[in-house]
Design a protein that fits this description.
Largest sheet: 8 strands, mixed, barrel
Radius of gyration: 70 Å
Strand order of the largest sheet: 18-19-21-22-23-24-25-26
Distance between the termini: 87 Å
């Protein structure tokens, strides 16, 4: 398995490089040594050949001197001159023995052998077998040379021929020495080369004389028989020999070759010793290098391991411990950069952690951190037996302040509120911004009275006007309080119930409200309604009811007001007061308005087809006046049904028209320009002025039912308001409709005041469209016979009861 650690890989790399370097060095030394050795051996062989030639030459000169001494001997010359063969033979033997000659000849001038030292005297009285040598001596005065004496034993001899002078040559003396192993051994002693002589006689049986060991001579002779040309290297006896084969110059022209050899194994002994020394030194150097590389690798990887450990600490979230690597090299620079990264990450993570748990605007804890602290405080308070209080605070009219003075002012306001709350609470308490204009305060108290004291302190913090950017403004807030464990056992539930109490304080227009059991169901119902409004429209859960509007002059129904109802699968039939406001808050009121317009126009079309001369009235929300596509949508519905615009009356509340008069005037002006009738609903409860009413160009005023309901009971103030409103409307050229007519007395008063139209439970409650059609057919109001008085109403009308215009 390959090493995985960086230190092991680095050490392996360094050792591998060193080993490869040493192997390459040894291989280069070996190859160079072998080439040098072979070149040296070839040089030695060539030198050995010259040495052998020099040896033979020196021996020839020595023989020549010896033979001259013999030829110059007076007695010997006398014997030769007298032809005394016994004496000649004796002298030749004595002299040959003295100089260890192998053959001595006395040759006559005619070229025949007069005497010799051979045992069998085979050449006596016969021609000398080497006439060429004698001829050379006759020419030069003497002669020397190597010959292969075939007639003798085919071995090479070295002969010297000199004349016997008296004073002219009277004979020739020839002395010969065999070139044998002793001569070759002498040459080997001088040159360290193995010298061999190969004589090739005519009969084809080569004769070998060699300094080689005897066991290798036969193998060499066999190699010579096999190869016509000897190679530079020969394998003999398992050894390799460098070889040089050169012909030896002979006096008789015989073929004698000189073979010089040197054992490569023996010659390479010093080289092998050198290589072994180099290998030993290299191994020692490698060992030292491995130890040094190990220390170096450890020195390199040790700071890297510390860096890795620092990275693991950072991965675990430990940003406090420094890296701890201080070096001046690149690793030190890396460690310094790594340490800077650690500090930067620590700083940024601390900033991210703060941003994740604190409000970016006020710097207060956010909802996440607040809930965490609340859970911890609840656990601790449970052990101490105390109460944990939670006050959720929402600023009143903050949206108006934001819209009027700008978002920057609103942000400054929230910062100042957070600052004041922080100064009000105790060190053990916590204040947080939950979002928007909603704040929360957590505190620990002994009883519920202590919670009210905290709420009072929080309220007093906002009593003084807030001055921001030269603008002084009063800020009010609604507080909801919940206590643990009185109202909840955990942080989430406690937060929810404090929120419920806060909304209760807003609905009651009070400063503080303490959570009351059972309020959750109402809040859950509101949440359910909010989340299901859109599905209610798509799921056809809405219903349209119609309440007739009757002309007091003649008592005939002129139109019907379309009122939406929601038949909820769980809560049953719900009035618009319960869900329309929530629809406005969630932005879904436009869906409901368009659905109501579609259903109302469709119903009006059916009435017209049935021969009923009725118009329909539909209420618009304040948000509908901000819909630029509303006029085109309404006109499109009427054109689709081929209804004239006068068949549809659009009612808007007085407060909606006055909340944003500019938008309302634009939208209502466009609707008016398209021929639609407009009415101000709930007139008298808002803040409209006569000038604004004139600019809105409406056609009707609907007097709010709060002024009409008790009109029949003789309320003089209500009667004065109703009569004045009717006169005002008529003076402005508007029709006046009174809603909430509950009895005949109110009807009669409205008739005396000159009111144009009336609607209410005295006439009929809102009815579903089929029942409304039935009512039109059966009711006296629908037949136009005048208003019935007292109990002249039909049984259905009496069953509807009194109770307002919903």
């Amino acid at each position: 398995m390959a090493p995985r650690s960086f230190q092991a890989r680095l050490l392996l790399l360094m050792v591998g490089v060193l080993v490869l370097l040493q192997v390459a060095t040894l291989l280069a030394v070996h190859l160079a040594g072998q080439r040098s050795l072979r070149r040296t051996l070839r040089d030695e062989l060539r030198v050995g050949a010259r040495v052998f030639d020099s040896t033979l030459s020196a021996r020839g000169r020595q023989l020549s001197d010896t033979v001259r001494v013999l030829a110059a001997d007076f007695a010997f010359r006398e014997a030769v001159a007298s032809g005394d063969r016994p004496t000649i033979t004796s002298v030749l033997n004595n002299h040959g023995s003295r100089i260890a000659a192998d053959a001595v000849f006395l040759i006559g001038l005619d070229g025949s052998v007069a005497a010799d030292t051979l045992a069998d005297s085979r050449f006596v009285d016969r021609p000398f077998p080497l006439p060429a040598l004698v001829d050379r001596a006759r020419e030069k005065g003497e002669a020397a040379g190597v010959v292969a004496l075939d007639a003798l034993d085919h071995r090479p001899y070295q002969f010297v021929v000199v004349p016997v002078l008296a004073p002219e040559p009277i004979a020739w003396v020839c002395i010969g020495f065999t070139i044998d192993e002793r001569v070759l051994d002498g040459v080997r002693d001088l040159t360290a080369l193995d010298v061999s002589l190969v004589a090739s006689p005519p009969d084809g049986r080569p004769l070998l004389i060699s300094a080689l060991p005897r066991d290798k001579r036969a193998e060499l002779l066999e190699r010579l028989r096999e190869q016509s040309r000897t190679a530079e290297s020969l394998q003999l006896g398992g050894e390799t020999y460098e070889t040089l084969l050169e012909p030896l110059e002979t006096a008789d022209g015989s073929r004698v070759q000189m073979l010089l050899q040197r054992s490569l194994e023996q010659a390479s002994g010093p080289l092998r010793q050198l290589e072994l020394r180099i290998l030993a030194l290299s191994s020692a150097a490698l060992l030292v290098a491995i130890v040094a590389a190990s220390f170096f690798a450890r020195g390199v990887t040790s700071p890297l391991r510390r860096l890795a450990e620092a990275a693991r600490r950072i991965g675990r979230g430990d940003y406090a411990t420094p890296v701890g690597v201080t070096q001046g090299d690149e690793i030190g620079q890396l460690a310094a950069a790594f340490d800077g990264m650690r500090a930067g990450i620590s700083q940024r993570e601390e900033q991210i952690r703060f941003q994740a748990t604190h409000d970016a605007l006020t710097g207060l804890p956010n909802r996440v951190l607040f809930l965490d602290r609340l859970a911890v405080e609840i656990a601790q308070a449970r052990r101490r037996g105390s109460l944990v209080g939670l006050a959720v605070m929402d600023l009143d009219r903050f949206k108006e302040i934001n819209d009027t003075l700008g978002h920057s002012f609103g942000d400054d306001l929230l910062v100042e509120v957070g600052r004041r709350l922080g100064q009000t609470i105790r060190a053990s308490d916590t204040v947080a911004r939950l979002g928007g204009d909603e704040f929360a305060v957590m505190f620990e108290v002994a009883d519920a009275r202590g919670a009210l004291d905290v709420a009072a302190r929080v309220g007093r913090a906002l009593e003084a006007p807030l001055t921001l950017g030269g603008v002084s403004i009063d800020v009010n807030a609604s507080l909801g309080i919940a206590l643990c464990p009185l109202h909840a056992d955990d942080a989430g539930t406690l937060m929810k119930r404090a929120d419920v109490a806060m909304y209760q304080a807003k609905r009651q227009h009070g400063a503080v409200a303490v959570y009351e059991p059972g309020r959750d169901e109402h809040s859950l119902r509101r949440l359910a309604i909010l989340s299901e409004l859109r599905q209610a429209v798509a799921g056809d859960q809405l219903e349209l009811h119609f309440q007739p509007q009757v002309a007091l002059a003649g008592g005939r129904v002129r139109r019907a007001e379309a009122l939406v109802r929601w038949r909820h699968p769980r809560y049953g039939l719900m009035s618009p007061d319960e869900f329309v406001t929530l629809a406005e808050q969630s932005g879904n009121v436009g869906l409901i308005t368009r659905w109501v317009l579609q259903q109302a126009v469709a119903a009006c079309d059916e009435w017209q087809r049935a021969g009923l001369d009725l118009a329909v009235a539909v209420n618009l929300s304040a948000l509908d006046l901000h819909d630029p596509e509303l006029p085109a949508f309404v006109v499109g519905l009427l054109q689709q049904r081929s209804l004239p615009p006068a068949r549809l009356v659009l009612e808007i509340t007085e407060s909606a028209a006055m909340k944003d008069p500019a938008h309302a005037q634009t939208t209502l002006g466009e609707l008016k320009a398209r021929g639609l009738a407009l009415a101000i609903d709930d007139y008298g409860t808002g803040q409209s002025s006569l000038a604004q009413l004139k600019r809105l160009r409406v056609d009707e005023l609907k007097i709010d039912k709060s002024f009409v309901t008790h009109l029949g009971g003789g309320a003089s103030e209500d009667a004065l308001i109703v009569r004045s409103t009717i006169e005002l409307g008529h003076n402005l050229g508007l029709e006046v409709v009174a809603e909430g007519v509950e009895d005949a007395a109110a009807w009669e008063r409205l008739e005396r005041f000159g009111c144009d139209l009336a609607q209410g439970y005295f006439v009929s409650r809102p009815l579903p469209e089929p029942q409304f059609r039935e009512w039109l057919e059966t009711s006296s109001w629908g037949q136009g016979r005048g208003a019935p008085s007292g109990d002249q109403r039909s049984a259905g009308e009496r069953a509807s009861g009194a109770g307002g215009n919903a």
